[in-house]
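tool_call: predict_structure(chain=1)
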Amino acid sequence: MLRKRPWDGETRETYKKAVLHEQITLKKNLVPESWGQEAADFINKCIKRKTEQRLGLNGPNELKNHIWFRDYDWKALQTRRLKPPFIPPSGDNIDKEYIESMLF
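tool_result:
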């Protein structure tokens, strides 16, 4: 949600070590103004270092019942009645253009 990893690590190995040994918490002063505290709480409960403490350990309903999702229409999601938050213009293929720019 912040477009960055919660842990630091230049390589797979250093990232893995950070995940295994550091408990990261999204601090209140780093929470974007557009977020509610419920969103930060959700993130913090999902990035617990110890898996047995993570939100969702007891199944998806634990995630769905978090206060951040209190007004979310899960039935509309399941029946595909929700409108996507973004639909790219027809014919626009950013990935294809990016790959081609890297090849040539």
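agent: Residues 26 and 43 are 7 Å apart (CA to CA). Proceeding to next step.
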